[in-house]
Structures are given as structure tokens and as C-alpha cells.
Amino acid sequence: MAKETKIVKGGFRATLALVISIIALILSIVAYTATTREEEFNVHIKNLQTSLEKMKQESSKQIEKLRDETGNVLEKLGKTVKKKQDTETQEKEAKQ
pLDDT at position 89, please? Predict the structure, then answer.
């Protein structure tokens, strides 16, 4: 009798091809989710940029208002000091 030969379906090459295709599938899924996360991240960055720009404009207005108020107060203070110096000068002249 002749020896029976064992018929192997697939073999090593087929198993290796299957493993490589599964790894490729996993990598493609990871890349897809990373791309989706990147798009969401970019949208979040744009939202933060717009809110930061609004805050910058608001703080610029507040700083300008504070600058004006400080200028007015310093102007009043300067006038008060000048009046006081003028009265002291007049008092000194009156004593002489």
C-alpha cells in the first residue's frame, strides 16, 4: 500500500498572511481613531483660540479704561500738589 499523504490546508504561508493582515487591520483602525481624535482636537483648539481672542479684547478694553482713570487721578493729584506748592510759596513770600 501506498502511504497516505497528509493534505495541509493553508500551511505556514497562509497563517503568516492572515497574521499580517490582522495586524494591518488593527493599525488601520488605530490610525482612523487617531485621525478622528486629531480633528476633534483641532476643533477644540480653534474654540480656545476664539475665546482667548475675546478675552484679549476684553482685557485690552479694561486696561485702556484703567489707564484713563489713572491718568485722570494723576492729573488731579498734580493740580492739587501744584496748588499746595503755590500756597506755600505765597506764604513764604508774605513772611519775607
Answer: 83
Rounded to 5 degrees, what angle do the CA atoms 53, 57, 61 make?
A: 165
Q: Does pTM surpass 0.70? A: no
Q: Each residue of 47-59: pLDDT tens digit?
A: 999 999 999 999 9
Q: What is the DSSP string of 29-96?
A: HHHHHHHHHHHHHHHHHHHHHHHHHHHHHHHHHHHHHHHHHHHHHHHHHHHHHHHHHHHHHHHHHHH-
Cell of 20: 499580517
Name the DSSP class of 22. H
Query: Cell triple for residue 93?
Result: 513770600
Q: How many residues does the chain have?
A: 96
Closest CA to 16 of 7, 24, 28: 24
Cell of 91: 506764604
